[in-house]
Amino acid sequence: MTAISATAQGTPASDPSPKSKLERVLAHWGAIAWLLSLFGLLAGFASLFCYTHAIGRIDLFQAAAANQSMLLVWLAWVGLMSVAFMLIMASAAVLLALAVSMLNTHHRLQRRAINSLLFIVSAGYACFGGLILWASDWGVEWVAVAVFLVTALATTLFYFLNPNLHIPVVLSALRPKKGKAASPWALLFFLFLALLGTVVAGVFPAQMVLMAYRGEDTPDAVGQLMLIAVLSMILALLPVWVFYKARGDLARRWQLCVASLVAALMVYLVLSPATLGIITYAAASSMGMRDNQVRAYMLTDKHVLGELDSSEWSLEARQKGSARIEAFKLFGFGNVLLLCPESLVKTELKHWPQRSARCLLTSATLARVLPQ
What is the pTM of this model? Predict the structure, then answer.
């Protein structure tokens, strides 16, 4: 009794009640706010550098980065584009999670079936990548038919030959948590539709890899590129696989899922680093930092006027020290303005590093937009 009493009395002193997580955050709010501000500033600088690097004009970075107020607006737009990018990338993962959730009898069955479902989707991805690489002359319709048939065949084979998929489907159909029992074939059909949707949605990360490619179109390079594209499609499903494959309570599975999401993003950016350039290029267009609309400018920058090539620019002298030019804006950040000739308006992102040197760098105060 004495020992028990001593233990009971010692417990509160040795194990004080911990503060709630909200109280801990509020207690250190100043440091957290400072760290968030620092992170936002670094993210703004990094994203601005990514854009100047993407268009081949790193020389613009230092002058543009001095404008702190514009940097906040720029960071907001890049954040929105990044969220949109992640939502598009996550569409395949959401559909795979929908397929797994159809097997709702028990987490043990979902954990048992997730490998089979991932293999089925991977077969569809491999078919898509192989056809793009070795049958590029096929039309979109025939590629879609082939991917449909391969996914259907893989689903059927795994259902009949792999008990890790067959048993969860049968038990989930005959012993559902809610509702009446259904036919395993009906459940398998809806499962196939969700898996087919996952394969189709996987095209988005692959397309981003193809758009971000900057190398030469040699046979070896194209083969390596398609391998990276297929790996990126599978990589987008990693968080779902971790969530359903992990053991433990729901909180631990979510923690592992988020950690795998961050890891997948890091690996994706290593495989396709130019993706950051695509995101910042889209953000620049959305906020008006880049504008493909050809406009008339009254240029009064004397240093630039003396270097303009009349064969490249359509010049119309107005008075001494000024000229009217037709151009579009590739970079406009604060007082920094980069104007390009009309002949470059259809230039793709991957070609800008070789062509942006033909654009003129001036100040926004020395290049006034003329009314239409």
Answer: 0.76
